[in-house]
Specification:
By secondary structure, this protein is α+β, with helices and mostly antiparallel strands. The protein has 3 helices and 9 strands; from the N terminus they run βαββββαββββα. The chain has 2 domains: 54 residues, 2,3-Dihydroxybiphenyl 1,2-Dioxygenase, domain 1 (Roll); 86 residues, 2,3-Dihydroxybiphenyl 1,2-Dioxygenase, domain 1, CATH 3.10.180.10. The strands form 2 sheets. The chain has a 5-stranded mixed β-sheet. A 4-stranded mixed β-sheet has the order 1-4-3-2, with helices on one face.
Length: 164
């Protein structure tokens, strides 16, 4: 039996790098719709984008994928990239941006610990846009273990955050 040791708790995910088929289309989505900022561009082949001036949270490239097709169903690969928003109001703003751009949601869920919107980027890469609830509000079982679930997210309640 293999013994697993926990990773250092300070470790985090620094960035994700996606292969895309059309860099301009991807920039229009990630920067134009979601609001990320372009930090670096390598001609027509690659770009790096971020929130808040970080060097990059997402890399986009066409080095091996220009004009390529989406991965077929039933194959392995990335399920989704999760982009964490700092609070419910900023997640509501993301929902409004998606609605204004006509980008359909694949789902919206209340997970107890977080609230999430699910969609695909123009190349079919799965995205989860979410915000965590404060840790002291996370649901727990009687033994103290974390309880997560998937319930429908009230999108009207989320959008009401923008009216406050």
């Amino acid at each position: 039996m293999t013994s697993f040791r926990p990773i250092d708790p300070r470790v985090d995910i620094g960035h994700v790098h996606l292969k895309v088929s059309d860099l301009e289309r991807s920039l229009a989505f990630y920067c134009g719709v979601l609001g990320f900022e372009l930090t670096t561009r390598y001609g027509p082949d690659a770009a790096f984008i971020s929130a808040g001036g970080y060097h990059h949270h997402i890399g986009l490239n066409t080095w091996e994928s220009r004009g390529g097709s989406r991965p077929p169903p039933g194959t392995t690969g990335l399920y989704h990239v999760a982009i964490r928003y700092p609070d419910r109001r900023s997640l509501a703003d993301a929902l409004l941006r998606l609605q204004e751009a006509g980008i359909p949601l694949l789902g919206a869920a209340d997970h107890g610990v977080s609230e999430a919107l699910y969609l695909e980027d123009p190349d079919g890469n799965g995205l989860e846009l979410y915000c965590d609830r404060p840790r002291d509000q996370w649901p727990r079982a009687a033994d103290g273990s974390l309880v997560m679930y998937t319930r429908p997210l009230d999108l009207n309640s989320l959008l009401a955050e923008l009216e406050r």
